[in-house]
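Hi R.,

Here's the input for the iron/sulfur cluster complex you asked about:
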Amino acid sequence: MDPKPKKRVFIGLLVLTCLILSLFTFLLWYIPMVGLKNIHSSLPLIYSIVLAVFVFFMFSGGLLLVFTILRGKDILFTQKLRGIIAKVLFPLMILMGRIVGVSKEKVQQSFIELNNHLVRSNHHRTKPNRLLLLLPHCIQNFDCQVRITGNIKNCERCGRCEIKDLIELADQYQVKIAVATGGTLARRIVVENRPEAIVAVACELDLTSGIQDAYPIPVIGILNERPFGPCVNTKADIQKVKTALLDFLEPQFLSK
Ligand code: SF4
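And here is the predicted structure with iron/sulfur cluster in place:
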């Protein structure tokens, strides 16, 4: 797995999509013109304006995204941009990736990094009790008999897996922490806890669907490490989790 997934995969696919859509729009504009003129003399003008507005919004959105990424700051509508990327562009980029031979996993990694960048650009801050650290069940040691779904604090903190460190980190900053065995439970945890922001650790698939489902709640996604393959004894980079928590906490809660 590429340890540093690149935003530019997503941006590259986006630029390619914009170019293809522009060509498609041009054909849509050019081909039916004569027929429209025969129906009514003002129809070609109305049709051209509609297509021009479409192209304008498409390129403005693309440029806004690129500028936000380059500047690393919220320029305009970052929140809305996140939603459009998660709900509309991401499925489209998966499709485009398939056409040009970019793996689904790479597009997902790129989407996660892009999402994190936009969330951080927005400087969304919250109190510890409205911040949720959501973990996948596969971080728990496979041989551990303690049941931590439902209540992660059942963990006996033996240190055989990183659940211990993550609980200590959550306790240090007084943030909520929970373990989910899948998307359904993750959604229920979010509904019950009503967080204002989420730091989630998971694989590409769960993170991308989680980010999409949670919108408009901002999520910083951290890919888990899988030294023993998927879903068994996975690991989280504690420093990355800590940085993500600090990125969400209001300044008065940071001095610990
Ligand atoms: S730290 Fe120990 S008790 Fe806690 S979940 Fe991991 S293996 Fe189980």
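One thing worth noting: The mean pLDDT is 87.

Cheers,
M.
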